[in-house]
Design goal:
- It is a single chain.
- With about 280 residues, this protein is an all-alpha fold.
- Helices cover about 60% and strands about 0% of the residues.
- It has a domain of about 130 residues: Four Helix Bundle (Hemerythrin (Met), subunit A) (Up-down Bundle), CATH 1.20.120.
- Strands 1-2 form a two-stranded antiparallel ribbon.
- Helix 7 packs antiparallel against helix 8, helix 8 packs antiparallel against helix 10 and helix 9 runs antiparallel to helix 10.
- The termini are far apart.
- Keywords: Membrane, Signal, Transmembrane, Transmembrane helix.
Amino acid sequence: MNRLRSPRPARAILFCFVVPFLVGIVPAPSLAADSSKEANLASPVEGSVWFDEDAGELVPVEVDDQQSENENRDSRWTAVRSNKSRTAPAAPAAATNTGFSFARLFGWLMLGTLLVGLVTLLAWVFTNSDFDFTPGSVEQSLLTGEQLDRQTRQRMEHLPEALRDTSVNPRAQAERLMQAGQYNEAVIYLYGHQLLLLDRVHWLRLARGKTNSRYVRETVRSQPDSGQRLQQTVAAFERAYFGRHDLSQAEFIRLWQSNAKLEQDIQSADSVRKPGAA
C-alpha cells in the first residue's frame, strides 16, 4: 500500500517546477512579435521623401507666413504675437512755407481791418451820440463872455435849425439885439441860450428832431418852475419866428427877467452837483 502512494508527491513537485518554466517561455515569441510590430509602426515615413534615412530623422518643412501685417497685430486680443518689426508709416509732407505765410498774413490783415472798423464805429458813436459823457456843469462862458467852449459848440449842433449859430455866444447876442430894439431876433438867441443851459444840467436832452413842446415837457418833469419859464420863452419864440408877430419891449423885458431867475436856479443846482459843495 505504501509503494502505490509514493508517485503523487513526485508529480506535484514536477508540476510546480514545470508550469512556471512554461509560463516564462511561452510569451517570449509573442512579445518579440509585438516589438517588431511597434518598430514597424514607429517609422511610417521610412522610404519617403519626408524621411532622411542617413540622418534617421524627418525632413523639416518650411512654411511661409501668409498673414498680413497690421497695426493691431500685437493686440491682446490676438492669440499669436509677431516679433517682426513693423515699418513706421511715412510722415505727411510738410506744408510749404509759402502757403503758411500767406495764411498768416491774411489772418493779420483781417484782424487789423476788424480793429480799425471797431475804432471807427466807436468814434462815430461818441461823436453822434446825444448822450453827454462829461459831468454836468455850467461853464461861465455860457453866462458871460463872447467865446464858447468846444463842448458847447458841439451841443449847439443839436439845436433847432434857426438856433445853430455857433459863431457867437447866444446870451451875449440876445443882449446886444435887445439893446438894439430887435426883439424878434433877440428871442431866438435867448431860446437857444436857455436850451444849452438846461441841457448842461441834464434837465432836458438836446437832440435833432425834438419839438419845442417836447423840450418843455422834459424840463417840467425835471424842474416844474424852470419848465414854466421855458414855456414862456417858447411861446414868444413861436409867435415871432413862425407867426411873424412883433414882440414889444415890455414883453421881452419880462422874458429877460425870467431868464435871470432861470440862470440862478441852474447855477444853484449845479453848485450842489459839484463835489465838495456845501
